[in-house]
Amino acid sequence: MLEKTQRADRLAEICMQIGFALWQLQELEGCTAIYFVLLTQASKGMGRSIGEALVEKAQSKTFGATIKQLEKANLLPTDLAKRYISLLEERNWLVHRSRIDSRGAIHHELIAQKLLLRLDAIADEAAALLKMIGLKMESFAQENGVSNDQIELQSARLLREWQTNSDD
């Protein structure tokens, strides 16, 4: 049996991995909702406030609903749709069943390692899909007259805003 500090250290590692996986999933969920709005609802000249309202509405839907909407609009190739659905299943496992399924992880090395590997895989897949959907949005923007320079300028501006508008 592990000592109390060893169990606490293992729990801390598990919690960090869970948090990171959830963070990656939330980033993907938000970006996927934006992708849906961009390709199905946005129109040239609609303005920022209308666009932000559409994004907010789309982001209030579940991840599964967003995936279904993208499939219905034929915006996810079959291989990408399969990856999204598989990740959705992993996300649902993480949120609803991971603690129960991994109850012994704090006390047993093999259970902990299995859990940590699964959490890493979830985070990695979310990051990979995030990159893919980001590239699709960038291509869409370029096809609709937005230059790489404009994309880079807006990205830099947004990053500066995020860094200076912290709640610290």
What does it look like?
This protein has 168 residues and is mainly α. The chain has one domain. It contains seven helices and no strands. Helix 1 (4-40) packs across helix 2, helix 1 (4-40) runs parallel beside helix 6 (109-143) and helix 3 packs antiparallel against helix 4 (78-96). The radius of gyration is 19 Å and the shape is elongated. The N and C termini lie far apart (41 Å).
Outline the fold blueprint.
Layout: H1 4-40, H2 48-59, H3 63-72, H4 78-96, H5 98-101, H6 109-143, H7 148-164
Helix pairs in contact: 1-2, 1-3, 1-6, 3-4, 4-6
Give a concise summary.
The protein is mostly helical and 168 residues long. The chain is built from seven helices and no strands.
Task: List key phrases describing it.
168 residues; 7 helices; 0% strand
